[in-house]
Amino acid sequence: MLDPAKLLALFLSMTVLSIFLDETGFFKWLANAVLKRSGKGQVKLFTLFFLTVSLVTIFTSNDIVILTFTPFLCYFAKNAKVDPIPYLVSCFVAANTASMLLIIGNPTNIYLATSAGIDFVEYLRVMALPTVLATLTAYFVMLALFYRRLKQPINATVQDVKIANKLLLVIGLAILATATALLVISSYIKIEMYLVAVGAVGLLCTVTLFVAAITRKKPVELLRTIRRVPWMIAIFMIYMFAIVMYLDSHGVTTWLTDLFGSKHAIIVYGLASVLFANLINNIPMSILFTSVLAGATSLDGVYASIIGSNIGAFLTPIGALAGIMWLSILKTNEIKFSFASFTKYGFIIAIPVLAAALFGLWLSMML
Hints:
The protein is mainly alpha-helical. It has one domain (26-162, 230-366). Helices cover 75% and strands 0% of the residues. The protein has helices spanning 4-23, 26-36, 42-59, 62-80, 85-98, 107-115, 120-146, 166-185, 193-215, 220-228, 231-249, 252-260, 265-280, 282-292, 300-311, 321-332, 339-366. The chain is globular and about 60 Å long. The chain starts with a helix and ends with a helix.
């Protein structure tokens, strides 16, 4: 069993870096910049938002991107008097697809990859093709699904969003970029990833407090960041670690290992991970599968489970905590989108995207 403290430190530290960028206004500014360049065509805007969410997710966190961009998209749709569903679904799907590319994109990636001893570079080498194929498939499936809705003209009023503290934004981006670069080479310089992430947060806090002292201003961005850290999710993860340890001690994980077997691991673990994610949520599933995969003879099942933990999130709201919170945001903004609607769109999109990702994984493992 992995050291849960190290995994939580890595997850929470990268989350802090993402939230800090949001507090500086970076994500809102970026979304508005995309809107300015969209013109009057919804298809172009849909494409730009899909690309933006995908790129931002790669270097931050899928949950943070979803929770940040969703309120903006709700506001934008009301302002432009357009159907919000294509943009909201696109945001959710894009974030949970692009998050497969790097280990840090999703805590489930961290659990499963680290448990198998997969380093940052090797992970990227294998997961690049599955992520690209899945992302392209998701885009074209959603474009076909929502094309009629996107034919309507757009009349949004573009706001002039300004960054209140550009220095803090530069500091946040620089530290995130440096941390990501160090994570890439961490296995070569013999530094554990959690130390890189924790060090980045420590540097962020130190520099931010220094700037606040020099300018004689309260470090409000940092304080709001700390308040927004998902501490309850950390407690939930610890609780799930305890449950998995209990199941492991009673032979349940060994039984699942034998049940899944070693043949056709990509298909078996890809489908099983999606199923379990939507039965017990993708975080508990990933923690459970770390023990199940401990007896596996190849890494095929590990990567397939990572794919399932990400793509399974948009099959039903149960698949990920972000899904539940996403529906809550929509309800707060008076946008009707039921559990049944989520599942309907989820099945239509998830099946071809999962097939594309698993096919890409098979090609990567053959190379």
